Amino acid sequence: MKKPFVTLEQLQTITQQYPTPFHLYDEAGIRANARALRAAFAWNPGFTEYFAVKATPNPQILKLLKEEGCGVDCSSLCELMMSDHCGFSGGQIMFSSNDTPAEEFVLAAKLGATINLDDISHVDFLRKTLGYIPKKISCRFNPGGAFTLGESKEGFQVMDNPGQAKYGMTRQQIAQAFKQLKELGAEEFGIHAFLASNTISNEYYPALARILFQLAVELKEETGCHITFINLSGGVGVPYRPEQPANDIAVIGEGVRKAYEEILAPTGMGDVAICTELGRFMLAPYGHLVTRVLHMKHIYKDYVGVDACASNLMRPAIYGAYHHITVMGKEDKPCDHMYDVTGSLCENSDKFAVDRMLPEVEVGDLLVIHDTGAHGHAMGYQYNGRLRSAEVLLCQDGSTRLIRRAETPEDYFATAIWE
Ligand SMILES: *Cc1c(COP(=O)(O)O)cnc(C)c1O
User: Fold this and answer.
1) What pLDDT does 1 receive?
2) 102, 290, 314, 413: which has the highest count of C-beta atoms within 10 A?
3) What backbone torsions phi and psi does residue 74 show, to the nearest 5 degrees?
4) Can you tell me which atom of ligand 1 is nearest the CA of 96?
5) 96 close to ligand 1 (CB < 6 Angstrom)
């Protein structure tokens, strides 16, 4: 069973200060998880988690992760600017973008970020844009085809389609890019790949690591480049559904260590640093979207109308993603009513849940929508004139702190030209 990290009593107090809807983040959970990740990779002295800023682009969250030893992974101008403002120095910033505008490479280079090139044509684009090639550089690899892991009764445990993805370079291109970059003055090389998203499997990182470690050995031979870091990127998932098992980061770290010892260490590459760019795994479980029931509607189906909508959390509307819902204070009641839980957008996809079994819901009930800490508020938008909500941090001492105010109509109108 999925349990909220707050109680009804806590929420009743918190909602007196901050009106619903809002995203609530659990500082203790975020810190403990970040520490578990570091511990899992402590065997690798150069290990760094570059938190994927796009998952939760909030300065206070970034600062908190910085205190836990994380860097940041950026992919846009504003993410670079935010990271700079939060005090991340060049070495703590990875710039893993694609289809990149020139000005973003300029800022990334100015900040001293490690640039991860998504395409072979970007070698020339970067050289023309900057007038030089940075000494430390990374290239993104795409092996093509399908990526599958561990067949189970229900099919493949992990399945994704790199061959259909717009990211990265082919095997031939990455070798060519390394040679070109070396000729243009690069001295330290990295390899990056992101093959599958939201994986619920302790095997994903170890399998990806094997592919990249093997590639590193080959590229070193073919190009003579000095490979100093390998970036496993994001993709380690979280169990959105209550019946899914959670990943065990200690097992994952140990799996990567085994691959490292088998493939890299014997070839004299035992000094390669491992990097990760996790977003979802770092934050998703430690965020709740807190919302109140405004209306109950009974037509051909039974609807729970809440004061949040897809502007606050888009994943169900755009991917049909499952987010667990707890009706606060009714945790022990039987889930014997079937509802669609909806927001107010004039879009029938604006449903947080369809045909969800819940305890009987009443107007005024507080709902917690689980696992909204990553790719939640961040994906918000203003369609239908709906505004993005506040973000509140539940601090380790039980107090709360506003870490982003809710948008106001003035924010919405700020870009309009009236005359
Ligand atoms: C989105 C993204 C991530 C984070 O992905 P998660 O699924 O949140 O772990 C990391 N790296 C890059 C380049 C990304 O685009």
Assistant:
1) 81
2) 290
3) -115, 155
4) 13
5) yes
> 355 CA distance to ligand 1 centroid (A)?
30
Q: For the whole prediction, is pTM greater than 0.70? A: yes
Reduced to 3 states, what is the DSSP secondary structure of residue 38? Answer: helix
The preferred substitution site among 65, 192, 194, 276 for testing ligand 1, maximizing ligand atoms within 8 Å of CB, is 194
Distance (Å) of CA 337 to CA 303, 304, 357: 11, 11, 5
Given a cut of 70, the residues of the chain with pLDDT beneath it are 152-155
Residue 378 Cα to ligand 1 middle (Å): 13
pLDDT of residue 154: 64
Q: Any long-range contacts for 108-115 (C-beta under 8 Å, 24+ apart)?
A: 108/74, 108/80, 109/134, 111/80, 111/83, 111/84, 113/74, 113/80, 114/90, 114/138, 114/190
What is residue 215's predicted lDDT score, i.e. its pLDDT?
A: 98
Q: How many Å lie between the centroid of ligand 1 and the Cα of residue 19?
A: 31
How is domain 285-413 classified at the CATH fold level?
A: Lyase, Ornithine Decarboxylase; Chain A, domain 1 (2.40.37)
Ligand 1 centre distance from Cα of residue 305 (Å):
32
Say if residues 58 and 375 touch (Cβ distance below 8 Å). no
The residue ranges of every structural domain in the chain are 27-284, 285-413
- Please state the atom number of ligand 1 nearest to the C-alpha of residue 192: 13
User: For the chain, what is the radius of gyration of the CA atoms?
Assistant: 23
Of 186, 74, 81, whose CA–CA distance to 126 is shortest?
Answer: 186
What phi and psi values does residue 392 have, to the nearest 5 degrees? -125, 135
Write down the architecture of domain 27-284 according to CATH.
Alpha-Beta Barrel (3.20)
Which atom of ligand 1 lies at the shortest distance from residue 55's CA?
Answer: 8
Task: Specify the amino acid at residue 110.
Answer: K
Dihedrals phi, psi of 34, to nearest 5 degrees = -60, -40
If we measure between CA atoms, which residue out of 385, 338, 386 comes closest to residue 359? Answer: 338
Q: Give pLDDT tens digits for 172-230.
A: 999 999 999 999 999 999 999 999 999 999 999 999 999 999 999 999 999 999 999 99
Separation of 74 CA from ligand 1 center, angstroms?
10
Cβ atoms of residues 248 and 202 within 8 Å:
yes
Q: How close are the terminal C-alpha atoms of the chain, in Å?
A: 55
Q: Does residue 120 sit in helix, strand or coil?
A: coil
Q: SS3 for 416?
A: coil
132 HSE (CA, 13 A, CB side) = 8
